Amino acid sequence: FLPSARRPIEEMEAELDALMADITQPDLARLLVAIFGDESTYRAFTRAPAAKVNHHACIGGLLEHTLSVARLVLTACDLYPELDHDLVLTATLLHDLGKIRAYDPVSFQLTDEGILWTHLYMGASVVEHAIDALPGFPAELRLRVVHAILSHHGRLEHGSPVLPSTLEAIVLHYADHLDGDARGAIDQIARTPADG
Questions:
Q1: Residues 14 and 2 sit within 8 Å (Cβ to Cβ)
Q2: Per the confidence metrics, is the pTM higher than 0.85?
Q3: Phi, psi angles (nearest 5°) of residue 4
Q4: How many CB atoms lie within 10 A of CB 192?
Q5: Is 94 exposed, middle or buried (0-12, 13-18, 19+ CB in 10 A)?
């Protein structure tokens, strides 16, 4: 009885798995395995909504949104070879991880944690804890991954505690913004009755 993503979950899971397998930088690959290798996290991530109402407000919406952002980011990698492919793709796959705790999976309402902490903080916190458990994870790489997550809303007034200050964070911000706004507009148009 709940709205579902336009694509089948299993198809999207296969795409997510393929994107993770495409990461060749060993520390970033270890990080993704540490997070998504946990079955409960993987299942929550692939079923969660991306928002309460604005965009991808459906079962599987978070996964659908993440994959759309990843496609935009991969296109940017073709356009801008200066981008660190593995870093920007890893940050993209993790940028909204906090939404699995920020939104109730049935009502799509913000949880108390979501209201008080925001999904940006919660996602960054999960990633930092996962990195802490990975021996030898480079300090600069940690800074860059967490920075991209914290800055992906792009502006302080939009909830980011910092502005995007690396090329990867800038590209992630604009890809996330484009997908959220475009899907939100498409969904709003679909909900608006046509004039007779």
A1: no
A2: yes
A3: -120, 160
A4: 8
A5: buried
Instruction: State the Cα angle at 138 between 132 and 141, rounded to 5°.
Output: 100
Q: With beta carbons less than 8 A apart as the criterion, state whether 87 and 144 touch.
A: yes
Provide the residue type at 103 as one letter.
Y
User: Quick check: 101 and 111 in contact, CB under 8 A?
Assistant: yes
Write the CA distances from 43 to 76, 140, 183, integer angstroms.
Answer: 29, 30, 23
Q: What is the pLDDT of residues 104-163, one digit of tens each?
A: 888 899 999 999 999 999 999 999 999 999 999 999 999 999 999 999 999 999 989 999
Average pLDDT, the chain: 93
> If you average pLDDT over residues 15-27, what whole number do you get?
98
Residue 193 in 3-state DSSP?
coil
Structure tokens given for 60: 């599987």
Question: How far apart (Å, rounded) are the C-alpha atoms in residues 144 and 93?
Answer: 14
Closest listed residue to residue 160, CA positions, set 148, 171, 168: 148
Express as a percent the part of the chain with pLDDT over 70.
97
Closest CA relative to residue 122, chosen from 140, 134, 110, 136: 110
- Mean pLDDT score, 95-99: 97
Is 92:82 a contact under the CB 8 Å cutoff?
no
